[in-house]
Specification:
Number of domains: 2
Distance between the termini: 40 Å
Largest sheet: 8 strands, mixed
GO biological process, one term: homoserine biosynthetic process
Order of helices and strands: EHEHHEHHEEEHEEHEEEEHEEHEHEEH
Enzyme class: transferase
GO molecular function: aspartate kinase activity; ATP binding
Number of strands: 17
CATH superfamily of the largest domain: Acetylglutamate kinase-like
CATH architecture of the largest domain: 3-Layer(aba) Sandwich
Protein name: Aspartokinase
Family: Belongs to the aspartokinase family.
């Protein structure tokens, strides 16, 4: 017997036929002897319709409390419909909304972007286990929470996935299943490249980076709640089968935190290649990086300007890399010169929250500016910031910037 938490997205319960197929898939798992907790989103486009009606009616003169209450209607309707369909299939079910004494998700009072109170919520969620022991399938609103004043809150983007992963953790589930409108995670968007392949598995870290760069399968915020010890997968609603393999989400690796900071233990050297209109020369970066790659030299960072390309390599490889790149400068007419610069330190900060934190670059660099530490180079993605400073300032700079993650 296994305990499964399954979340159905809005598209997967987009009409009566899909709801019945979804409910049947849950009942099928129940009939195998498994315990199933269901989390549902609002029926497809319901939330958008509610928002549009509200805007047409009162414009922007709506309070956060009113907004949360109105938005909650989508999920509260879904659980009632879904639970009723399960019972029509001959299995006992109970819907659980924020007004129920069994409600598991307790939050702070940030109404529209609420954070889960883990200690209280984990304790409260155990009440659901009593229903499971009685052979009842609970159907829980995704996306919603309740604060200490018994007000409805919402968990923000990715809220229903957050609910599913959180319940998986707090109930010690064996598996969390995310049912959506795709067969799993693909090698690329199949709407753009037809021969895209489904991945059998993907790591949390890879999934997070994929999500932050536009993939709509899971919101990266939800992945912070993924328990490394619990199996999780993404499947399509099409087959109506929760045993569909889909794509498994692996990790995060034990001991690897979603937030991390690192000071590279060895000095990095800067090599600058200069030339004319380098950004307009197709294949130039490939030539530079291939020259180093075939000679087994790793690149820690690279930045390009109109008339220069800066490459960061380990100091121990710098002399060899300098010579190899000089050979290219001599061969290629539009390149002028190459220089080997000073030793620098590389600091790396990683957090899935960076993407949703306005001014994070300013927050990170402020203590360096205040302590007169010069930044040689800075690169960033949606979840990581890499800073290069003088080697002599490395340890001190690291202590300043790592505090941002605490």
């Amino acid at each position: 017997m296994e305990l499964i938490v399954v979340k159905f997205g809005g598209t997967s319960i987009g009409n009566g036929e899909r709801i019945r197929k979804a409910a049947q898939s849950v009942v099928n798992e129940y009939m195998k002897g498994n315990k199933v907790v269901v989390v549902v989103s609002a029926i497809n486009k319901t939330t958008d319709d509610l928002i549009n009606i509200m805007k047409d009616a009162i414009g922007d003169n709506v309070t956060d409390k009113q907004m949360a209450e109105i938005l909650s209607m989508g999920e509260m309707t879904s659980i009632r419909v879904f639970s009723s369909v399960i019972e029509s299939l001959g299995v006992k079910s109970q819907f659980i909304d924020p007004f129920d004494e069994l409600w598991p998700v307790l939050t702070d009072s940030n109404i529209l972007e609420a954070k889960i109170d883990f200690k209280e919520s984990e304790l409260n969620s155990k009440k659901i286990l009593k229903l499971l022991d009685q052979g009842i399938i609970p159907v829980v609103c995704g996306f919603l929470g309740k604060n200490s004043k018994n007000q409805i809150t919402t968990l923000g983007r990715g809220g229903s996935d957050i609910t599913a992963f959180f319940l998986g953790h707090s109930l010690d589930a064996d598996e969390v299943i995310i049912v959506t409108d795709v067969v799993g995670v693909m090698s690329t968007d199949p709407n753009k490249i037809q021969d895209a392949k489904k991945l059998d598995k993907i790591s949390v870290e890879e999934m997070r980076d994929l999500a932050t760069h536009g993939a709509q399968i899971l919101h990266p915020h939800a992945l912070k709640y993924k328990d490394p010890l619990i199996s999780a997968k993404i499947i399509s609603y099409e087959n109506g089968d929760l045993s569909d393999p889909g794509t498994f989400i692996v990790g995060p690796n034990e001991g690897v935190m979603m937030k991390s900071s690192m000071l590279c233990p060895e000095p990095i050297s800067i090599i600058a290649v200069v030339g004319e209109n380098m950004l307009k020369k197709p294949g130039l970066l490939a030539k530079l990086t291939d020259k180093l790659a075939i000679n087994d030299i790793n690149i820690f960072g690279i930045s390009a300007g109109q008339n220069s390309v800066t490459i960061f390599v380990n100091k121990k490889d710098s002399i060899k890399a300098h010579r190899l790149l000089h050979d290219l400068v001599v061969e290629i007419d539009f390149l002028s010169s190459v220089s080997l610069g000073k030793e620098i330190a590389m600091l790396t900060l990683v957090s899935p929250e960076f993407i949703e934190t306005p001014g994070i670059i300013s927050d990170i660099t402020k203590p360096l500016r205040e302590n007169n530490i010069n930044i040689v180079e800075l690169t960033s993605s949606q979840t990581a910031v890499v800073i290069f400073v003088d080697w002599k300032d490395g340890k001190k700079a690291y202590e300043y910037v790592r505090e941002i993650l605490e």
